[in-house]
């Protein structure tokens, strides 16, 4: 099963290594989708939605909401934000019955990125 939880936050950034309008300061209402892969536990759940919300809010959303993301990530592209989110969550969401499967970061309703961790690790080898 794939368990899905969506989050939203507003933040500003600028892409310092990009030449175009996005190198100027601007903001987005980001959508973050966190997906866990696993099997239901003895309570019939892959992961408790309340606990997942608390963890993601604490580890990611509270840091990014109404923030200047460049203070956290030097080149805050959707791709780099997704890698950051993955790294913040991968260990803390690991359970005997599930693991982090995928994160999605959407800058707009039509532009986003999906990251699955291990694919990035293969590219880096």
TrEMBL record:
Cofactor-binding details, from the entry: Binds 1 zinc ion per subunit.
One GO MF term: metal ion binding
One of the Pfam families matching this protein, by short name: PTPS
Coiled coil: none
Residue positions binding Zn(2+): 13, 26, 28
Any single GO BP term: tRNA queuosine(34) biosynthetic process
Residue positions of the active site: 22, 66, 107
Database matches in InterPro entries: 6-PTP_synth/QueD, 6-PTP_synth/QueD_sf
Cofactor(s) in the UniProt record: Zn(2+)
Keywords (A to Z) from UniProt: Lyase, Metal-binding, Queuosine biosynthesis, Zinc
Enzyme Commission identifier(s): 4.-.-.-
Catalytic activity, reaction form: 7,8-dihydroneopterin 3'-triphosphate + H2O = 6-carboxy-5,6,7,8-tetrahydropterin + triphosphate + acetaldehyde + 2 H(+)
Pathway: Purine metabolism; 7-cyano-7-deazaguanine biosynthesis
PANTHER family membership: 6-PYRUVOYL TETRAHYDROBIOPTERIN SYNTHASE (PTHR12589:SF7), PYRUVOYL TETRAHYDROBIOPTERIN SYNTHASE (PTHR12589)
Family of this protein: Belongs to the PTPS family. QueD subfamily.
Protein name in UniProt: 6-carboxy-5,6,7,8-tetrahydropterin synthase
Organism from which the protein derives: Fonticella tunisiensis
């Amino acid at each position: 099963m794939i368990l899905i939880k969506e989050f939203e936050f507003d933040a500003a950034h600028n892409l310092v290594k990009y030449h175009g309008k996005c190198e100027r300061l601007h903001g987005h209402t980001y959508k973050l989708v966190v997906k866990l892969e696993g099997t239901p536990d003895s309570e019939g759940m892959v992961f408790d939605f309340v606990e997942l919300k608390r963890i993601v809010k604490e580890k990611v959303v509270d840091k990014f909401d109404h923030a200047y993301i460049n203070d956290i990530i030097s080149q805050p592209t959707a791709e780099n934000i997704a890698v950051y989110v993955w790294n913040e969550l991968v260990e803390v969401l690991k359970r005997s019955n599930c693991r982090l499967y995928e994160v999605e970061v959407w800058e707009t309703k039509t532009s986003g990125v999906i990251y699955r961790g291990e694919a990035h690790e293969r590219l880096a080898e």
